[in-house]
Amino acid sequence: MATLMAAPPLAPRPIAAWSVPMPFMDNKEKRPALKQLQQTAPAARSRKERPCDGCRRRKSKCVLQDSGRCVLCEFHKQDCTFVEKAQPRKRKLDEGALNDESTSRRSESTTQVANTASNVQRSQAQTPVIPTPSIPAAPVRKPFAVDESLSLQRHRHCKLIGQTTALDASLISLGTFDEKNETQSRLGRLRQVHTGEYFSTHDDADVAVPDDEARALAEIDAIVGQYGSTLIDIYFRNVHPSYPIIQKQAFLDRQRHGDRQFNPPLLAAMYLLALSWWDQDPILAPFPKPDMNRLEYIAITSLTIAMQRPKMSAVQAGLLLLQRAKASTWTLTVQLVALGQDIGLHLDCSDWSIPLWERRLRKRLAWALYMQDKWSALMHGRPSHINPADWAVLPPTRSDFDETMSATINPATTTVGPGPTGARSAGEPEDPEILKGRQIFMQMITLTTILSEILTTFYSTTAIASFARAGPYATQLVLNRAKPVQIRLKQWFTDLPAECKMDSFETGKLSGTGYLHLGYFAAEISIHRRIVQSLDPASAAPTTTPTASKPDPYILYICRSAAKTRLISAMDFVNRLRPEHLSAFWFFASAANFSLIATFGALLQASSPGREEVEFYSSRLREFGWTLNVCARRAKWVGEAVGLLEGWAEVLAGLGEKPVAGLQYVPHPSAKGPLGLLGLEEGVDDGMEEDGSEGDDGDDGEGDGGGEGEGTDYGVGEVMEIDSSHWEYA
């Protein structure tokens, strides 16, 4: 019997150095417009039916339409002629000249509308040869940076090959790969980006969806008219610094060279966000604002089509559309998470064989998607769709925001390739406002990771069930779980860099720190909201527990006092917002976060044990409503919180009278101190003087005593560490 020999282990194939593709190699690729070839193509033509000059040069199938022009010439907006003589294949020099001429015509077709070709007569007879004048060939432009990328190519898209699919990575590695790390077989065209990581790549034309990109772009241009470039400038000035999910230099490089093959939903979304500053721009303000409703409709409909061809541009477009402070964001957020997983945004791309600028962009875009998912989960009370166990993206560093694109480095070979021109030189100092925006973005990422822990710890289905099982000891369980999260939140606030402080702004310059600090208060309130809810015996104790009783007055007093301090600090923060904050870019969740403050105040009022406390919260909520109305004059989206507050006021008006005597603090005999890090007199001020009158803790600008220092509007939250030795629950 023959001896079975073990097969040698599969050694990982070394990744080839990334090489810049040849100019205009995409001439041979199918374009999105070629879906008409599949839908309207006639029967096979005879050899006597010669292609037009343009299709001959492109070596593409020529499909005539009733108008007398072929599909491709109409798409490229160029003349459809039949005057050139076919060139012999052996004349390489002439072929190069024709390619140069084709390049020139393609470039011109993006900005000009060709004359009609109705006078062109197609003849089956031999067409006479007309001498072509000698025209100097236009210089061949280097490929756009996006054409070197993995997930931003203009006419191709890719999908990650997962570990459990039928395409096994160890078998794929046995194939023959070219200099672009691609292999072509009956399995399709596959691209390796790292050992064991593969993507399948596809032509956009292979996806049978309506191809209205050219029409959508034309309609977008018609809506914004001559103000398109001004709106793009506004976008990169006001949005991009605090939300850098677009590669600025790559975008401007394409715009500078007349490329009109932008992603329609992305372009429309950028215009929509920039239109928020139309009335504040001295150049645009005198003119009527473009139709935003029509622009948004085009963006949404074209995004639906773009999602069928997974690219980073579709994720970028969706995220920008979601920043428009609309209420119905959950469904689109879930779709974007799935789309991001399709292109591998949840993976660590640090060592992938893709351009350096794309690796940096993927990391920023991935974390923007992460924040969108977590804050949407908070807004809508839904489970997050990003599991920590399946998230491998490293936190961004300062270098990940470098958009110079002066070099494209392959991590495997350290070779350098060309990048687009017009980028900032390495030694040129960057705008301080841009650096500030990047810090805000990074700090928001860290805050979002804490929010993710809050959602899992207090609001997941498992957590809610455990609190219900705890019965009368639910408050103790909540407090025990709250302590480590509060420590993280307190440390985050303490470590904020100077440029992220609320008082770090220049008069007349927009400051994006507002949404960052508002997010901090939303996270704090989400913790205290669960604590206050656990104090209600009706919700804390199961109906089957006969011994359920009211919570310990000592615990009730401490928890409600800490919650009151958080509410007052949050309201004071809103009261101190300046026009420089309100007119800046605000993260999409900001409207909901303002509403959370209103809801938390209404919850404390509704659960108040005494009449004096009810009157205190009622007064503070009225003041808060006035403040929100003032803010809404500059930021109309704040009106959402105003409407919610008015709704809660109507609900609370129907509550019965509370007893005159409110909650009184009686120290528990076994208590060693209500707070672990702050004493009662320092950290828990109930907002009342000894005589029952309202104190001035909300007006002196010192918050709760644990703040930032001079000029601080509020303080950090307390870490509640209550001695619960008298509890029997373990």
Instruction: Note the overall shape.
Output: globular
| N to C succession of SSEs | HHHHEHEEEHHHHHHHHEEHHHHHHHHHHH
Number of domains: 4
**Alpha carbon gap, first and last residue:** 66 Å
Give the strand order of the largest sheet, numbering strands 1, 2, ... along the chain: 1-4-3-2
Q: Low-confidence spans: pLDDT under 50, at least 5 residues?
A: 1-48, 90-141, 412-423, 539-548, 671-715, 721-730
Most strands sheet: 4 strands, antiparallel
Region (Disordered): 86-136, 409-430, 676-730
Biased composition (Low complexity): 411-423
Keywords: Metal-binding, Nucleus
InterPro entries: Carb_Metab_Trans_Reg (IPR050797), XnlR_reg_dom (IPR007219), Zn2-C6_fun-type_DNA-bd_sf (IPR036864), Zn2Cys6_DnaBD (IPR001138)
